[in-house]
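Entry: ADP-ribosylglycohydrolase
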Amino acid sequence: MSTTSTVVDRAVGCLLGGALGDALGSPVEFRQDADIRAEYGDAGITEPPPRALLGDSTQMTLFTGEGYLNAWATGNSGGPWRPVEATAAAYRRWLTTQQEDKPRLGATGLLAEAELYANRSPGLTSLRALQEEQLGTPERPRNSSKGCGGVDRSAPVGFAPTAEMSYTLGCQFGALTHGGTGGWASAGAMALLVHLLAVKGRRLPEAVDQAAGRVLREDAETAEALAEASTLARLGAGVGHIERLGQGWIGPEAVAIGAYCALALPKPAQFADALRLAANHSGHSDSTAALTGSLLGARHGTAVLPRPWLNRLELADVIERVGHDLGASCTGEKFSERRYLALA
């Protein structure tokens, strides 16, 4: 088990690392590898733009964190512990930011952050699902999507008290919008990976093997993709290996690509190179780079984050605050719970 200060630092590193990956990959999302290198050079895109804007996965990651912390603070103050309901409400608040131009008078929490009222090409599955009256569960799915929109927002759940709770809540949060087994099981696997790295202090190969074993009970596709990521990482870093895993449009591929890039370039000094590897391929570059950044941030903490990149990152202070509070909730450290009790 990691120390309190280490877990808090890794929680901040996890969320900021994911945001940096998202910002790096966003400009080349939907682009083919050859087109990326034709525009940016043989190395592809190598750093976020001068204004490193949050992508939709980071936006929803923040609301995942806020929803979970709302449930945690409510339960800690004597109220009911309803993390799935609280996170569903948080996702509907995120939907408000996609439908309105600016915060309403009296808005609190993330709804008060004007920069979040920006459309960053969110997935249609999430948009459509959140407009429905009833959201999904693993047992009662509302659609058959196994897109990566569930997994790329699931990192905050890794700071639940136990590994099994992280996995279970990750699956449940993913299933709110993505009903295909791969869509929600991959989200559970990602949450479990974050918990094992940040809270339990596992090394990356061990964490990936354990997550693959756990998710096998629900989804062989995600388990096999993670196992393949481990195998390919032992062969070294290369875009060709990513192509064998897929393009990252579906959850099992996305989490496998994120795990592969983190495994192939696992050292603290390789953080930026791992994100570059995850972004420069023909696929869902922002999500795969975000997942890579989240995993390496959860493993190593904030020390690995490139300071010049952080200095240009949109809402870095908000991301840091949510990350800190997630880590504090996991370890019992005091934080401002009140900000999560009255959200409107």
